[in-house]
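re: ur question from yesterday

yeah so i grabbed the chain u mentioned. its 329 aa long if i counted rite. heres the sequnce exactly as i have it in my notes:
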Amino acid sequence: MVSLRDLAPSLTRVTVAGAVGGVLHVGRGDCDLVDAKAVEFSRAVLNQWDVDGEVICCEGPKDSAPAFERREKVGTGKGPVLEFVVDPVDGTTAASKGRKDSISALACAPKGCFQVLPDDGYYFKLATDYHSIGKLSLDMCIDEIVRIIAKEKNVSLEKFTVVMLDRDRHNEILKVLRQMGVKVILIPDGDIVGAIVAATPNSGVDLLIGAGAGPEATIAATAVKCLGGMMLVRVWNPYVDVARVERLTQAGVDVAKTYTEHELAKGDELVFVASGVTKGELLDGVRLSSDGAVVSSICMRLPSGTVEKSETTLRFKGHPVYKQFLNEF
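ran it thru and got these structure tokens back, copy pasting raw so excuse formatting
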């Protein structure tokens, strides 16, 4: 049986392809073009790979954006049976506007390990490092959550830092955080990176909190679990939309449940990979040249807990995947 450790370099090639596809339309103001090329390039790499794969969930349907189909079969069908949760570009709007911190990301595991959270509405998320494992609940108020984490990490409120998507739906949370006197970093897009930074000890960020999309929650939970941190996720405002409750229930989501990182990403054979599209806190952006590109990536895996950063130099001419896209560059 082939281990995911042996497959990790191939997984990185998928997000490298997504990043290269996405960067072609950075700064041009068209989110759909960014997503479409990232999906096209990453699909091309997946489909020439000897795995029996299935993309169980992908970011995009909520916004009618280009995406992998739910339960889309990928790979040649001849290798190990794997499942994927994919976000071809997390931070599509940021990429379309030429802003920082957009990445191409995915999580991979043996079949049956991921909890599907469809890209259908929002999910409330909390991520932090190992200090507060077993001590937090999403039934707690924001004030209590922050104070518990601050106490466990021995950080004063004045030095406590929260990262959160800059959205109107977070106005009440932001008001509470401002009143507490903590630092708040408002990010325009891309909460996968926010979760990773919050789960990394001594990163300078103590907590990710707020509502975001579902596929990103499972991808982030995989990374957080690899880092030894904790993540809590549940459906945001589930009973506002009765039809949505029915759709989520049919998809296997318990709308009343709080999912942990262990329930979103089960087992100890897990891989998270990401490649930078635009320059950010976690990764450098793609650097295109006349005949290729340089792409920065990160790979985290269990059971070892290894975190590896790498840099890939591509030459498009003669490449088994990129040569078919040469007219795009």
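noticed a couple things. The longest helix spans residues 4-23. also The mean pLDDT is 94.
anyway ttyl
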